[in-house]
């Protein structure tokens, strides 16, 4: 089993029992796998962890950023239970809209504008099972 998948599964279970703050552990997991979050052109506002409906035994990580031009973008990463990428990566980055061609339920999520006014974040951005951690830093909202 892919060790990154195992850790994401632990985070998923932790979200159910301890709350969405558990999603902050995803940043460390990405770092462990050689993936750095954006340092330029974006402030991280939302961390999403979801289970796709069209691919079994996988997780999608979404990092939604507010860019300098006040638009939103989301970086997507796919982690499969048994799968690894062409270069042996355990977590695969899907830049731009690439993920929606692999997993059609994510169509349009790359540039979707989140609604920060939804009480308790009960509305998810995608139509799949998702946990979301929303940064409440008002200076960039």
Task: Describe this entry's structure for a reader.
- This protein is an alpha+beta fold and 141 residues long.
- Residues 118-127 have low confidence and may be disordered.
- Strand 2 (58-66) and strand 3 (72-80) form a beta hairpin.
- The protein is built from 3 helices and 5 strands, in the order H-H-E-E-E-E-H-E.
- A 5-stranded antiparallel beta sheet has the order 4-3-2-1-5, with helices on one face.
- It has helices spanning 3-18, 25-32, 98-102; strands at residues 43-51, 58-66, 72-80, 92-94, 129-134.
- It has one domain.
Radius of gyration: 14 Å
Sum up the overall morphology in one term: globular
Order of helices and strands: HHEEEEHE
Q: Could you give a short account of the major beta sheet? A: 5 strands, antiparallel
Strand order within the widest beta sheet: 4-3-2-1-5
**Strand segment tally:** 5
Instruction: Count up the domains.
Output: 1
* Beta content: 25-35%
What separation lies between the terminal Cα atoms? Answer: 39 Å
The pLDDT mean sits at 80
Structural class comes to: alpha+beta
Question: So how many helices?
Answer: 3
């Amino acid at each position: 089993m892919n060790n990154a998948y195992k850790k994401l599964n632990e985070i998923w279970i932790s979200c159910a029992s301890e709350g969405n703050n558990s999603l902050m552990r995803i940043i460390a997991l990405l770092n462990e796998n050689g993936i750095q979050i954006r340092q330029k052109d974006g402030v991280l506002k939302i961390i999403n962890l979801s289970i796709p409906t069209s691919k079994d035994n996988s997780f999608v990580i979404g990092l939604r950023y507010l860019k300098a031009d006040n638009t939103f973008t989301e970086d997507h990463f796919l982690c499969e239970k048994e799968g690894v990428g062409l270069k042996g990566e355990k977590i695969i980055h899907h830049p731009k809209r690439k993920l929606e061609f692999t997993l059609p339920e994510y169509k349009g999520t790359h540039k979707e504008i989140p609604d920060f006014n939804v009480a308790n974040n009960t509305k998810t951005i995608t139509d799949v099972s998702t946990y979301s951690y929303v940064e409440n830093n008002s200076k960039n909202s």
